[in-house]
Specification:
This protein is α/β, with parallel strands linked by helices and 521 residues long. The chain folds into two domains: 24-91 and 298-510, Zn peptidases (Aminopeptidase), CATH 3.40.630.10; 96-292, Glucose Oxidase, domain 1 (3-Layer(bba) Sandwich). Helix content is 29%, strand content 22%. It has a nine-stranded mixed sheet with strand order 10-1-13-15-14-16-19-17-18, sandwiched between helices. The protein has an eight-stranded mixed sheet with strand order 3-2-12-5-8-9-11-4.
Length: 521
């Protein structure tokens, strides 16, 4: 054997031995994950004082601050000097006194009452509109179905009246849309956007009269109109400026003024459906005055993010994400028979949050740093539609292309001592194989899910960005999303075991050069 070959072989052996040893999980770190530790975290997050951690709320902020303080104690690094990624939420409501709607027909003005005769829709614009009135059928432009209610009709600067639903929606034998199932063209947000694209100044929506008798002005359930002292504001992620036109739903009184009777509109709809051809026209001798005024308040909420920098000069620029959501549903307006209204969310998802925090402590106390960097993320607003994790993937603080894997923990504290579900195996088979191997060496037993929960938790936005992502859960139970999801029902041993499993898996991922396949479906 030549000296050069010997040096190469020894060098290769040294590198191999280094990575083989680094894959061995630190017993010191593993021992940090204990029942008392996860109980401490869960008992705080799921206490009555946190009022169910709805987002946004003071209590959710307290929960985020608590997690951040623990990250600081553990010695995790901040990002840009903070453990928080701020996400703006908006609550919009009507200024009822400034909302108005009137028709001028043959010189006579007909004024209508908000809530009784007209109600602004959720996706309404925030402006005023005056103009002639155009009946625009269903308000649909669907080239793939050779159907366009706006064909050969000029609606620029005018108000359009459109019906709910789509042609022949209830006739599965004759429909040319989607076999009787609603398509995107039946959505109210679509109808408003389409009218806006065609230059309309405003939109009136009416329930389609051919299939409905009650033509009410329900619109959106605005807090100012419906709650009457029992506020339940709707919070959503603040978006860019709303460029939609003012849009309201109107009742049969409005239709009677415009067409003389609901039957006249019903006949128009019947004719459209029978020949599947639009019948849009300028309504003679009618003009419209419409005004919608919205007022918005901004309430920020935070993802909580801390990280441990890797030790390998090359691999430390790659990231392993361990995540969970810390929010829950807040308080119910229907207390149970024990007069308990707080949905504490001990399992959903104080348990997953506590497990991530425990894993973070294990990594920082392990006595050695992994080769890759490890990022710990506690997401806000999962219960509102994966808003926190989706926001992160659209505004990443670490390169998504360099993020090699994501492990998500959601509800890990119920249903016995030794069972665990692995969510998303079919989408990340190689990462799942590693997880299953570690389960086989643990005191846990994997059981198969009967339903696919992959799209319902924070692993999904990462998967959509082609990151291998696996979820761990102990499954649904009778206290899911109820006031009875309390800390006294948590199996702390199970939380400990799933946190230890997560630590072992993450340690292996963070100490190899392996990359994982993502199966897109």
């Amino acid at each position: 054997m030549t000296r050069v070959l010997l040096i190469i072989l020894l060098s290769s052996y040294t590198i191999f031995n280094h990575y083989a040893q680094s894959q061995e999980v630190s017993a010191k770190g593993l021992n940090q994950i204990s029942e008392p530790l996860v109980k401490e975290f869960i008992d705080f997050l799921a206490s009555d004082e946190m009022r169910g951690r709805s987002v946004p709320s003071v209590e959710a902020d307290k929960s985020a601050n608590y997690v951040a303080s623990k990250f600081k104690d553990f010695g995790l690094k901040t990002v840009n000097g903070s453990y928080f990624q701020q996400i703006p939420f908006c609550s919009a409501d009507l200024n009822v006194e400034q909302c108005s709607f009137a028709l001028i027909k043959s010189g006579t003005k007909h004024e209508f009452a908000i809530k009784e005769n007209f109600t602004p829709l959720y996706d309404t614009g925030n402006s005023q509109a005056t103009g002639e009135l155009v009946f625009a059928g269903y308000g649909i432009t669907a080239p793939e179905y050779n159907y366009d209610d706006y064909k050969d009709i000029d609606v620029k600067g005018k108000i359009v009246l459109v019906m709910k639903q789509e042609p022949r929606q209830n006739d599965t034998a004759k429909t040319v849309f989607n076999g009787g199932r609603a398509t995107k063209y039946s959505g109210l947000a679509y109808k408003i956007r389409n009218a806006t694209r065609h230059g309309a100044a405003g939109l009136l929506l009416v329930t389609d009269p051919l299939h409905n008798f009650a033509l009410t002005a329900q619109g959106h359930l605005w807090n100012s109109l419906y709650m009457k002292g029992n506020p339940n504001p709707m919070y959503n992620l603040c978006t860019e400026k709303n460029n939609n036109i003012p849009a309201v739903q109107v009742d049969r009184d409005v239709i009677n003024v415009i067409f003389g009777s609901v039957d006249s509109l019903r006949n128009l709809q019947r004719n459209i459906d029978e020949v599947l051809s639009p019948n849009s026209f300028l309504v003679p001798e009618i003009s419209t005055n419409l005004a919608v005024l919205l007022e918005k308040d901004v309430f920020p909420s935070n993802n909580v993010i801390g990280w441990l920098e890797g030790s390998d000069e090359q691999l430390k620029s790659e990231f392993v994400v361990i995540g969970a959501h810390y929010d829950h549903l807040g308080e119910s307006y229907r207390p149970n028979n024990m007069n308990d209204s707080i949905m504490n969310g001990a399992d959903d998802n104080a348990s997953g949050t506590a497990a991530v925090m425990a894993v973070a402590k294990a990594f920082t106390e392990s006595g050695k740093r992994p080769a890759r960097s490890v990022v710990f993320m506690l997401f806000t607003a999962e219960e509102r539609g994966l808003i926190g994790s989706d926001y992160y993937t659209k505004n990443p603080l670490f390169s998504l292309k360099k993020t090699v894997a994501m492990i998500n923990l959601d509800m890990v504290g119920r249903n016995g001592n030794d069972t665990v579900y692995v969510v998303g195996q079919q989408y990340s088979p190689e990462l799942a194989a590693l997880v299953n191997e570690e389960i086989s060496k643990s005191e846990l037993t994997k059981i198969e899910l009967r339903t696919d929960l992959y799209r319902s938790s924070d692993n999904f936005p990462f998967y959509k960005n082609e990151i291998s992502a696996i979820g761990l859960t102990s499954g649904i139970h009778e206290d899911y999303h109820r006031v009875t999801d309390n800390p006294d029902k948590i199996n702390y041993l199970k939380v400990q075991r799933i946190a230890q499993l997560t630590y072992k898996v993450a340690w292996r991922v963070a100490n190899t050069k392996t990359y994982y396949t993502v199966i897109k479906r």
